[in-house]
Amino acid sequence: MSRAADVLRGVRAIRGEPADLDEEKLVRRVARGDRRAFEELYRRTSPWLTVRLRRRCADDQIVAEVLQETYLAVWRAADAFAGAAAGGSAVGWLWTIAARRLIDAFRRRAHHAAPPAAAAPDHTSPAAEDAVLDGVIGDEVGDALRRLAPELRAVLQAMVLDGLSVRETSVLLGVPEGTVKTRARRARIAMREALT
C-alpha cells in the first residue's frame, strides 16, 4: 500500500499537481485560472484563516461573509500577487485581503447600526479592539496602549496582535515599509516610557 502511495505521489509531483505545491505556487496557478489549485489553496488556508478571523470577530456570520469575500478576491486578483516582487508570502497576502474585508464588514455594520443623529448619546463608546484589549491586557499596559497615537497603535496591533511582517503591515495600512518601521520604533519607545 505504501509503495502504491509513493508511486502516486511521484506521478503527482511529475505532473505538478496542486497537492505538491507550496502556497505561492498555488496562487500563481490560480492566477492562470487553475481551479484545482484554487481548491487546494482553500483547503489548506481556510481553516487557519477562519481561526484568525474569529480572533478578531465573534460573529460567525461576519466571519463567513469575510471568508467568502476573501477567496472571491483571491480568485479575481491572484495575478496581482503573481506579478508582485519575489519573496512575498502568499499566506500574508491572503491575510491582508481578509483583514481589509473584515474592516470593511465592521464599517458596513457600524453604518447600518448607527442610531439617528438626534438619538446618538453624547459620550462615545470604546472601539471593539479597545474592549478586547481591556479584557486581555492588564490595566497598566492597556492604558499605555490607549494613550498611543492611533497610527502607532495600528502598527502595534498589526505586527504584535496579528503577527504580520513589516511588509504585510505596510500593505494592510497603506503606508511605506519605512513608515511602518518608524512607527513601530516610536510605539516601542512610547510604551517603554509609559511602563517605566
UniProtKB/TrEMBL annotation:
GO terms for biological process: DNA-templated transcription initiation. Keywords: Sigma factor, Transcription, Transcription regulation. PANTHER family: RNA POLYMERASE ECF-TYPE SIGMA FACTO (PTHR43133), RNA POLYMERASE SIGMA-70 FACTOR ECF SUBFAMILY (PTHR43133:SF46). Residues 41-110 form the RNA polymerase sigma-70 region domain. Residues 140-190 form the RNA polymerase sigma factor 70 region 4 type domain. This is RNA polymerase sigma-70 factor, ECF subfamily. It holds the Pfam family Sigma70_r2. InterPro entries: RNA_pol_sigma-70-like (IPR039425), RNA_pol_sigma-70_dom (IPR014284), RNA_pol_sigma70_r2 (IPR007627), RNA_pol_sigma70_r4_t2 (IPR013249), RNA_pol_sigma_r2 (IPR013325), RNA_pol_sigma_r3/r4-like (IPR013324), WH-like_DNA-bd_sf (IPR036388). GO terms for molecular function: DNA binding; sigma factor activity. Belongs to the sigma-70 factor family. ECF subfamily. It comes from the Bacteria.
